[in-house]
Design goal:
alpha/beta; 4-stranded parallel sheet; globular
Amino acid sequence: MKVVICSDAAQTRRLAAQVLAQQVQTKPESVLGLATGRTMEAIYAQLAERAQEQSIDFSGVTTFNLDEYIGLTAQHPQSYRYYMQTHLFRLINIPEHNTHVPDGAAEDAEAEARSYESRIAQAGGIDLQLLGLGRTGISGLMNPFPRSMAAPMS
C-alpha cells in the first residue's frame, strides 16, 4: 500500500480522481469499489470530467458500492443507487448492468448481503476501493454500534 499525504482536500480529490482514471486506463475491465458522501461528489465530478477530456472508456468497468439503506428502493432520492446515478453513472459510459449497489428493498437483507459478496467474488474481487474518511475518523461507515440500533430507513 502506498500512503500519500496531500496538502489540502482539493489536492486529495484531484489525486483520487486521477488514480481512478489511471486504473481504468491501465485495466479497462477493472472492478471498482465505490463510496458515497459529500467528498465523493467532487471526486466523481472530476473523474467524469477526465473521462470526457481524455476519452476514458468505462464500458468494461464493473462497480460495487459499499452499502445501501435498508428499506429504500433504488429510485428513492436518498438511496445510494440514486446518488451514484446522479453523481457518476449517468456522466460516464458505464453500462447499468455493470454497476452494483446492494438492494436496500430486499426482503432478506442478510441473504442480499451474501448474494452481493458472491457477485463481488464472481467478478474477481475489487481491484481498487475508494473510501472516505469522515471528520470523526470513520471510514466506509465502519462505525460500531449495537445491532439493536440497526433500523430500516423510510
